[in-house]
């Protein structure tokens, strides 16, 4: 809890002092717009708490917001547009939008809202548009309109409303548009509370019933859309309501319904547009005409199975725009449109057409005709002979394989021609001859691999040409001849290959805007030849070039030669792109440079970008960059936006940012930033700098610190004490070295060090033998537990319980005579100094025992310190010298007379006699031996 509070405090501080926003990015240069879309935001308070109060548009769509805490937006009182669509909101309990007094648009579409409290929109006095599409509302109280005095549009489509009524309990005098599409509404009880209502959509409420006077209080109602509803709903409304309608939409299955289209339109004297869904109806066999009454200017008929229509209308209307969408039309003859002599727009989309040569005879006023998705394979030039005024022709998504010679030559006024999504493989025989007024030609997404020379010779006014998505391998000046006014040229997704001597665009001297995204270009090293004459070029895009080929290649020093007017360049997503150091020298007016999906790890970025003094925006996306140089841009640069997403940057160079004085936006997302002291300054700068915004600052991950997953969480306090840290580092390094040295010495000279420690301890305690000392035991026996059987069966009986006449000795055994509760080391020391002698029963087990080694060392210490000859070695087995410790070898050399070997059975009696004699107290010998001093023995030991 405490951590959350601290975080919120940090957010509030950041909001006041810097441009760091959690999950959001402030738009630039429109700084009053904030984008927080698709950032997995769940806690709204954390995000809104950082938003500055000057924001007017806030987009929070596509997140995971479940609850809006009351007053969440109170600190952005100037907010006018709020988008909360595609979240997980479940209800509005009231107070969520408190403080948004100037909000005019609220988008809550695509949530899970099932309940709205009557006061949920309290305070939204200026709200004009409320979008609640695609929720799970079952009911909605009209009281909410009492809190929305300025509402003009309400969208409740795609909910689960069963009824809708707005009368005395609530309403709005300003609501103009009401959308109730695709609910479960069965009855419209009352909409008298909306006197200003102009548009209402009730489509796809299949069980809807309307009372005759339901719209009696809506004199301004002009649009009534009831598709997917029983056609009878249009019979009920009062005559006055019908008279005011200018747009109506309904569904009618004419085969089985007693109603007719004209019958439903009766009384609608001001009708301007009618949209009819025929629900798969066929034309009644008894009626040769579908519309035998006056028809409005715009007629839309869809979803029918009309077949061969002799005549659609008797011609008593003034229809100028006719849309026959998916109507099952098959054969069209010259009589089909006899009733529509004044047609200006005709759309015959999604029909499997068989068009007669004279089908459009008499349609001399037609300006736009469309045959989209009509499975047309061949185009007959005779279709267009009567269409002298046609300016737009659309034939997209058909099955056209060839354009014949002069196929469009009759359309001398044609300005726009759309032929994309067909099966054209080659263009020859000059199909576009005489189209001297054509301005826009789209041939994209075909399979064109060949274009004949002079194909576009007559298109002298063409300004837009799209050849993208084809298989074109070569373009020559002869192919493009005549395109002197071309401004937009789209060539992406082709297989173009240019040779060094080619200049395919040399004739495009008036080209002002060239959009060329050339996908799958095999090799474009020599494109500088193509561009050399395009002196007015302003926009150049060359993304996605070279899959399956060799890519763009090298952008050399003459690539942009003469292109002084270029303001925007996009290059990337190509197999190979190399930039010459002088590649951008001619681009003195370049404002935006986008480079993506290329390898620039070894590119000298400083040299490449040094000429770009006017550059405002630089994007280096997925460019494989490990570090940005301090002199990335020239000294007098004007860069405002720098985006380096998805590279390999670990640190941010302070000198580089200091050299960009006008930088307003820095995007460094999706880089493996390290949370170390090298980036401590960047964290502080990003949070507190008031001039530059770091996009999605609070979403920047640490690549090396699991304790701090985000950069803003990195604890950089220690980084402020750099000198102290360095001193501590040196000190601990020295300690580590000393510790390692001590460990090595202990490992190699451990026994010697143990002797020194024991000697020091004995001297400090003053434990030195004195003449006439009284001992509690005659001997302390040091042995391994694995040799205990020999001690108890041989040593103890022969020394403590000898035969008659032999002296009895008292032995100290650790398992028998050690004092309970005392430390083992204290017991060993007391036993050695409390015994006249120490007997070491030496075996291989003895040499491996740590405790036996300690007992031997303490006994040796007594020899060294007191000069007392107390140590007696009894070997129970032959042990090579190499297996003996240095201390055992010393004892063999200095006191060989006390060295005894356990003999064969026949010599054991003599063994016991020798051992007992050795244990006899001989003070004179001890004094003589002690006179030499233990220091000499210690010196020999160390030597």
TrEMBL record:
- Which of UniProt's keywords are assigned here? Glycoprotein, Immunity, Inflammatory response, Innate immunity, Leucine-rich repeat, Membrane, Receptor, Repeat, Signal, Transmembrane, Transmembrane helix
GO cellular component, alphabetical, reads: plasma membrane
Boundaries of every TIR domain copy: 775-919
Q: Which PANTHER family does the protein's record reference? A: LOW QUALITY PROTEIN: TOLL-LIKE RECEPTOR 13-RELATED, TOLL-LIKE RECEPTOR
Q: Where in the cell is it found?
A: Membrane
Name it.
Answer: Toll-like receptor 13a
In its UniProt entry, the species of origin is given as Sebastes schlegelii
Principal localization reads: membrane
Q: Which GO terms describe its molecular function?
A: signaling receptor activity
- Pfam families cross-referenced by the UniProt entry: LRR_1, LRR_8, TIR
**What is one Gene Ontology biological process annotated in the Swiss-Prot or TrEMBL record?**
innate immune response
Tell me which stretches of the chain form a coiled coil.
Answer: none
Q: Does the keyword Transmembrane apply?
A: yes
Region (Disordered) residue ranges read 923-943
């Amino acid at each position: 809890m405490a951590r959350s509070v601290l975080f919120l405090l940090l957010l509030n501080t950041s909001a006041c002092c810097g441009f760091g926003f959690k999950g959001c990015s402030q738009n630039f240069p429109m700084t009053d717009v904030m984008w927080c879309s698709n950032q997995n935001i769940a806690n709204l308070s954390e995000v809104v708490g950082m938003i500055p109060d000057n924001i007017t548009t806030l987009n929070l769509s596509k997140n995971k917001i479940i609850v809006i805490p009351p007053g969440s937006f109170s600190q952005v009182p100037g907010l006018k547009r709020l988008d909360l669509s595609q979240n997980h909101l479940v209800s509005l309990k009231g107070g969520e939008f408190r403080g948004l007094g100037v909000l005019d648009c609220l988008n809550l579409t695509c949530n899970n809202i099932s309940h709205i409290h009557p006061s949920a929109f309290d305070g939204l006095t200026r709200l004009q548009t409320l979008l609640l599409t695609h929720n799970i509302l079952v009911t909605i109280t009209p009281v909410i309109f009492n809190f929305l005095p300025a509402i003009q549009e309400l969208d409740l489509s795609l909910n689960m409303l069963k009824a809708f009524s707005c009368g005395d309990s609530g309403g709005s005098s300003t609501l103009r548009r009401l959308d109730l599409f695709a609910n479960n509404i069965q009855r419209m009880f009352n909409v008298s509370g909306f006197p200003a209502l102009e548009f209402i959509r009730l489509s796809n409420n299949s069980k809807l019933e309307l009372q005759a006077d339901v719209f009696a209080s809506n004199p301004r109602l002009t649009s009534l859309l009831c598709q997917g509803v029983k056609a009878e709903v249009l019979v009920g409304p009062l005559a006055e309501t019908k008279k005011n309608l200018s747009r109506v939409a309904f569904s009618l299955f004419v085969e089985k319904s007693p109603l007719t289209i004209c019958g439903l339109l009766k009384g609608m004297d001001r009708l301007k547009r009618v949209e009819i869904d025929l629900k798969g109806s066929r034309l009644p066999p008894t009626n040769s005409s579908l519309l035998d009454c006056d028809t409005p200017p715009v007629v839309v008929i869809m979803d029918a199975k009309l077949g061969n229509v002799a005549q659609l209308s008797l011609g008593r209307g003034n229809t100028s725009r006719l849309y026959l969408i998916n109507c099952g039309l098959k054969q069209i003859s010259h009589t089909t449109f006899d009733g529509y002599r004044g047609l200006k727009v005709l759309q015959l989309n999604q029909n499997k057409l068989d068009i007669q040569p004279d089908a459009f005879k008499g349609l001399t006023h037609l300006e736009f005709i469309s045959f989209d998705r009509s499975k047309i394979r061949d185009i007959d030039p005779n279709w267009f002979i009567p269409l002298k005024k046609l300016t737009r022709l659309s034939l997209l998504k058909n099955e056209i394989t060839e354009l014949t010679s002069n196929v469009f030559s009759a359309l001398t006024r044609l300005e726009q021609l759309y032929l994309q999504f067909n099966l054209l493989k080659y263009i020859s025989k000059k199909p576009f001859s005489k189209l001297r007024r054509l301005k826009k030609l789209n041939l994209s997404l075909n399979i064109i691999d060949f274009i004949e020379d002079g194909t576009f010779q007559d298109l002298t006014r063409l300004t837009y040409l799209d050849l993208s998505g084809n298989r074109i391998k070569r373009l020559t000046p002869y192919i493009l001849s005549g395109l002197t006014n071309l401004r937009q040229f789209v060539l992406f997704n082709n297989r173009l290959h240019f040779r060094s001597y080619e200049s395919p665009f040399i004739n495009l001297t008036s080209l002002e805007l060239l959009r060329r995204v050339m996908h799958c270009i095999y090799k474009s090293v020599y494109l500088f030849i193509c561009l050399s004459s395009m002196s007015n070029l302003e926009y150049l895009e060359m993304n996605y070039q070279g899959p399956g080929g060799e890519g763009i290649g090298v952008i050399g020093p003459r690539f942009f030669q003469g292109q002084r007017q270029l303001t925007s360049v996009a290059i990337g997503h190509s197999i190979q792109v190399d930039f010459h150091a002088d590649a951008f020298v001619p681009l003195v007016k370049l404002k935006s440079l986008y480079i993506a999906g290329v390898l620039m790890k070894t590119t000298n970025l400083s040299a490449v970008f040094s000429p770009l003094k006017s550059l405002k925006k630089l994007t280096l996306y997925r460019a494989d960059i490990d570090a940005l140089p301090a002199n990335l841009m020239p000294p007098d640069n004007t860069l405002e936006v720098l985006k380096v997403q998805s590279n390999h940057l670990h640190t941010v160079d302070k000198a580089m940012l200091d050299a960009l004085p006008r930088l307003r936006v820095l995007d460094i997302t999706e880089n493996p930033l390290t949370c170390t002291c090298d980036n401590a300054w960047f964290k502080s700068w990003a949070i507190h700098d008031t001039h530059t915004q770091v996009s999605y600052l609070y979403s920047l991950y640490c690549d090396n610190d699991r304790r701090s997953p985000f950069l803003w969480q990195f604890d950089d306090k220690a980084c402020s004490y750099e000198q102290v840290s360095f001193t501590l580092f040196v000190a601990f390094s020295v300690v580590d070295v000393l510790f390692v040295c001590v460990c090595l010495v202990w490992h190699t000279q451990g026994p010697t060090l143990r002797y020194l420690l024991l000697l020091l301890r004995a001297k400090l305690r003053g434990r030195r033998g004195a003449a006439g000392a009284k001992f509690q035991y005659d001997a302390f026996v040091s042995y391994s537990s694995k040799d205990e059987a020999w001690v108890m069966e041989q040593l103890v009986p022969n020394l403590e319980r000898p035969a008659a006449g032999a002296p009895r000795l008292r032995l100290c055994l650790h398992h028998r005579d050690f004092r309970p509760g005392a430390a083992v080391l204290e017991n060993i020391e007391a036993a050695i100094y409390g015994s006249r002698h120490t007997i070491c029963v030496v075996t291989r087990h003895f040499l491996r025992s740590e405790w036996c080694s300690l007992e031997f060392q303490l006994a040796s210490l007594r020899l060294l310190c007191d000069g007392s000859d107390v140590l007696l070695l009894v070997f129970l087995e032959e042990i090579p010298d190499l297996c003996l410790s240095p201390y055992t070898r010393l004892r063999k050399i200095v006191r060989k007379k006390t060295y005894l070997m356990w003999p064969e059975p026949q010599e054991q009696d003599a063994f016991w006699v020798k051992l007992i004699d050795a244990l006899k107290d001989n003070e004179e010998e001890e004094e003589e031996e002690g006179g030499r001093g233990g220091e000499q023995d210690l010196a020999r030991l160390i030597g």
